[in-house]
Specification:
The structure is a homotetramer.
Chain A: E1 2-3, H1 14-22, H2 35-47, E2 54-58, H3 61-72, E3 77-82, H4 86-89, H5 94-97, E4 102-105, H6 114-123, E5 131-138, H7 149-161, E6 165-169, H8 173-177, H9 186-191, E7 195-199, E8 209-213, H10 222-228, H11 237-248, H12 251-272, E9 285-286, E10 289-291, H13 292-299, E11 302-303, E12 305-309, E13 314-320, H14 327-340
Parallel strand pairs in A: 1-11, 3-4, 3-5, 5-6, 6-7
Antiparallel strand pairs in A: 2-8, 7-8, 9-13, 10-13, 12-13
Chain lengths: ~350, ~350, ~350, ~350
């Protein structure tokens, strides 16, 4: 049974494990003050072309969202998110647990637009309601779609005009930036958002996300929040090493591209067979709408999520690949998709 | 400059790194549902002789304390702790950030007694005050001391009679249980506390603490809390592997004992030279009271904390060893301690 | 300019003010331990036919919802509410500020049904999501509608089968129970919910809501929560006196009925003129759909909320009456409604 | 049995009750937008000589402290308070429930000094600890003592130099400002603190405290916090009327002075008899140290708190007077104090 359920079924890229071994007995300062973390941060600031950026390494995506939002908002301030947003659907109420309401925008493809936010601002305009203060987006989105440069620029401009923070969840940022139809550069993210994070866990790391505040002022005392919420690792060196290896030679992007390319094989095969899709994606997720009979057959050899019932005969499924996905298994899956689907 | 500042200056025991490499590309379920975590939990339940225990792996000590206390207490309930307790002095207000007051007990040696708690209960007895509900202890304590079986039994009995939970912070539990003067067995911890954790980070792991609820009822929905506070790793396999390697053959205890033995050399040398101590310890921490002139000399070659000023000529310092400490460096330090101290 | 905007534009029923004066200099214990509060609670328990009920007097509706939900839920537990629910739309994120997500059910008439909740439970079924634990309803609802006995019974039964608390917001409970089509008795509320509150502020009191836990166990330590969140008045006597006067002779119900009867005049006049309604109501709120031209004319003499745009010519307005509404002004309004509406 | 236990045993000054009756049926906007509140705020700003002040009326003291601190602090920021401070000892963990640690300073007379704070800042200086950000003082203190102008100036200057807010709890501000040895004017409070509150409940009001932010910037969105925590009364007129009556003619100060003068009779009598005091007070509280035998006799006719055991024969008691205290009963008490004490 081969799994296409998620992009964290395997461990880490060997370069990272090797570096862990190589540096294992070198004494280092704790709590992220080690030299690997420092070096990784410097490389990132250089690649982002943003010397004023403040960077923090933490362990996971929910943790990152929880910390950033807790750090930026006052008690009565709220978050605007797509109703497909990870914070709204999949984080066990983490944001609310820090006291903040999430105001969802109903979306089809995982993306939000300035006019959606404008509608929210009209309703949430008195002290009977919470005060919207931060816009949360994901890139790639939870549906595998991406923001274009013009879309992101429009969002950021709208946020700035309306005194809102723009926060990008980059759990799959590598996949977004290496999508064939992407026109955003890595450094653009640093000029078109207030804060974002670079997902490591789903793209080659054992664990680890890099939070980037694009101005140092926004990051004021963020280290206190990280410590207070239990997110500061004693051996911060582990996280530094992940990002050092991923970014010293653009491994991060080549791994993400590989994942995109692998799922593209599945997407193309499904298109060839005439299947439609729940969302048009160019990153490492595919949401083909398949006959239930085919789904049943495929399920005997592959694990994946049945995402949404479409009608009595068809359902959308989700298939994910990663840097660690076995290309042979993708090819086998493609073969089965074509043959078993009558 | 060799460091005796803490027990997390190095990486992980090689057995753990090897296992990470060996299992790296095996696909596993996420979020702690992997087979290494399952196996590690089974081994722990067996060694604790407690099949009803519920075990969770998380990343760090502050995180563990934050999660356990948030899970067990209602909003108005408070924690009783020694004023040296890690949650009171060193966690950036983590416990208060989840809404709970910590009531400190002034102590000399890091340990608390039933009569200390009884005094608190007399004062905190109306709804003007918070309601004490959980007693937090550390073993080994932050001052390197340990609880004897009779001390722990008395505390637990008192807690049970007064409707209080007893929670043991075991960041250095291995050091406590392998101290030469310890009379608690590993399985005793499971019968003499309500909940405790087994520290991995400071004893051989890259990261990781194992929370043990001694009855399954107390653990109800703890997994929700772990997820909500951002503490659930996607690749939970990493944590499972740490504890699998540490406990499948008692590596955990041999590493801890090694650390204890190393610092004992320093303790003995200091005693030989006639120095006294801030606290009598038998675990991996030493608090000798040294002349400031000696401290200055030692500081040129070794890093360690000057813990407390004693008088104008003397200060207590803290020296810590771990499984990874270089015995040669301990011997050199011992030599310098003897020679430089005129 | 006469106001039909809300039911808290005036002060208190004279009986209450008289009692305040009469008892003003009698020394009483503070914090709700006064004899008026005790007597009022006894009367309520008797009228509710529930000697095991635990009753607390607090100041306002948002405060009540905030306290009850904070007291009953663990950190990861969530509230289910109609999307018209006061806690969802009008309380500035009070519930989220105590850490709990509200899961909204889209409704037309302010009411929710067991099948709505069942749908939520299907989606919120893993630890990625919060755990639904409490169902919040209002009676009368924010749209002036009421629950019948069979509807409430079905809801309560469903909640009990699914381990959910049922909490009724009774800010306008008096209006609901005196509606001409109501079939619930006051004491039914105590057997068909877990906890509810009796709104005083909108029905004769200067301020005050009575929280009723229908079993003493649910109320455990609620007084701590009241104190902790700043809701315990030093001079609790003030709140006791409100409920003593309102309930010693059923003043509460006669005031509510008067309000219902007054708005019924408006409803009948609107029906006579052929207008339709946003919601069919029998309590003290009316939501007629009127021509914008008429609304403009009426607005010159009366203040009220334009609730919702219906189409280019028509809007729904909200008109509210209370025990203190001047019947002459209602009659004038009715006259204007008939005459000005061409 | 006459009570000297507290200063909230009776209702409100008759002027307030009369005004409530007089205005009872006048329609007013809700939520503090009524004309009485507006007028009261204007009067206060004038008397404080601070047109930029922002004023809010809420119901009680714990509520006020809870709101102000929640509004001003970020999650990792903490409060410094005397260990006798109301927030530390008597508010059921309200401050911690909003996520903030209170760092206590041990004091004898209820007052804190710049050097006390300086000591705290030295210890709380890294991200292992919380970050002190607000200094909480009471005037009059919980022990009945007061701050002189030079003391308050020194504190405020220290706070400003160290980027700390200074917040004064004025539950008994009237008593402080009318003490015979006070040299602070009402308007000084507005220049020597960042925020303070004027206690109504203990000085003539049915309920109500007036929060004063001395600069409008500090008050940003405070109304949201008030609403969110359930502290915004629908009938805000009630609170406005309390402060309108108390301040339109300095009733507030004459009532406070009366209370001070009454307890002074007791203090003088105790001095005459040679008794000493737990604290030297000039406000409406007295803490004489009396023989236990005398305490027992007095307890048969008067209720008051036995505050602290001094030795086997003596205890300190607390006696409080208010504007409503019956002077005849004070005289009787004085007589009994002199006669019964052999």
């Amino acid at each position: 049974m081969y799994s296409f359920k998620n992009d964290y079924s395997e461990g880490a890229h060997p370069a990272i494990l090797n570096k862990l071994i190589e540096t294992n007995l070198v004494q280092q300062a704790g709590y992220g003050e080690d030299e690997y973390s420092t070096e990784a941060k410097n490389i990132l600031k250089q690649k982002l072309n943003n010397p004023d950026a403040k960077i923090y390494f933490v362990s996971g995506g929910t943790q990152t969202n929880f910390l950033v939002i807790a750090a930026l908002l006052r008690p009565h301030e709220a978050v605007i998110s797509a109703d497909t947003g990870h914070i709204f659907t999949n984080e066990a109420g983490a944001i609310e647990s820090s006291g903040h309401k999430i105001i969802p925008i109903p979306v089809k493809n995982g993306k939000i637009k300035p006019e959606d936010i404008a509608c929210i601002l009209k309703v949430y305009n008195s002290l009977n309601t919470v005060k919207p203060k931060l816009v949360y987006i994901s890139n790639a989105t939870e549906l595998g779609t991406i923001y274009s440069k013009s879309e992101l620029s429009a969002l950021f401009e709208f946020c700035k005009s309306n005194n809102l923070y723009l926060f990008m969840d980059g759990a799959r940022l590598g996949n977004a930036l290496t999508a064939h139809d992407n026109d955003l550069r890595f450094s653009d993210i640093s000029t078109l958002t207030d804060v974002f994070y670079i997902g490591g866990t789903k793209n080659g790391a054992l664990l680890g996300e890099a939070v980037v505040f694009n101005t140092s002022e926004l990051a004021t005392d963020f280290d206190y929040i990280v410590k207070q919420k239990g997110a500061l690792l004693s051996k911060g060196r582990i996280l530094g090493i992940q990002f050092l290896e991923l970014f010293k030679d653009d491994l991060y992007f080549s791994l993400a591209k590989k994942a995109n390319d692998l799922v593209a094989k599945i997407i193309n095969a499904a298109k060839e067979k005439g299947y439609s899709f729940l969302a048009e994606t160019s990153t490492n997720q595919a949401f083909p709408i398949l006959p239930n009979t085919l789904i049943e057959k495929l399920s005997q050899q592959y694990s994946f999520y049945v995402w949404e019932k479409i009608d009595k005969d068809f359902s959308a499924v989700r298939l994910i690949t990663s840097w660690a996905t076995d290309e042979n298994m993708v090819d086998e899956f493609v073969g089965d998709l074509k043959e078993l689907g009558v």
